[in-house]
Amino acid sequence: MSDADRGGDAIEVDFGDDGLVPAIAQDADSGEVLMLAYVSPEALDRTRETGEAHYYSRSRDELWHKGGSSGHTQAVREVRVDCDADTLLYLVDQNVGACHTGHRSCFHRTIDGERVGERVFDPDEVY
């Protein structure tokens, strides 16, 4: 194993021209993919400081604390970075559901429209 494969040095994330990288939130225990969002340098710093997932909302153009309004937070156990250092993986403990539609995962439908995910809360009661 080479020194580069052994680890130990912090990875410099490549935030690209727009200052954002995609981040996949995955259940740390089950491996279920919960959602994909974007992360700015500030969002990554806040995630690392607080232990809870922070993202960057492109539609609102602002930092976003996951669960800040719903209470459906993500406790981040580990942040991983891909081989190109331009995508993050948040291994999380999800409180209730990750999707604003009330489902545990944002990936609750097949491409053919079949519902495969569990609805865990009523969004009309939360938002």
From TrEMBL:
Coiled coil segments of this chain: none
Residues in Phosphoribosyl-AMP cyclohydrolase domain copies: 35-108
Record's subcellular location: Cytoplasm
Keywords in alphabetical order: Amino-acid biosynthesis, Cytoplasm, Histidine biosynthesis, Hydrolase, Magnesium, Metal-binding, Zinc
Catalytic reaction(s) noted: 1-(5-phospho-beta-D-ribosyl)-5'-AMP + H2O = 1-(5-phospho-beta-D-ribosyl)-5-[(5-phospho-beta-D-ribosylamino)methylideneamino]imidazole-4-carboxamide
Cofactor(s) the protein requires to work: Mg(2+); Zn(2+)
Assigned GO CC terms: cytoplasm
Record keyword Cytoplasm present: yes
Binding, Mg(2+): D82, D84, D86
Function according to Swiss-Prot or TrEMBL: Catalyzes the hydrolysis of the adenine ring of phosphoribosyl-AMP.
Similarity remark: Belongs to the PRA-CH family.
Name of the protein in its database record: Phosphoribosyl-AMP cyclohydrolase
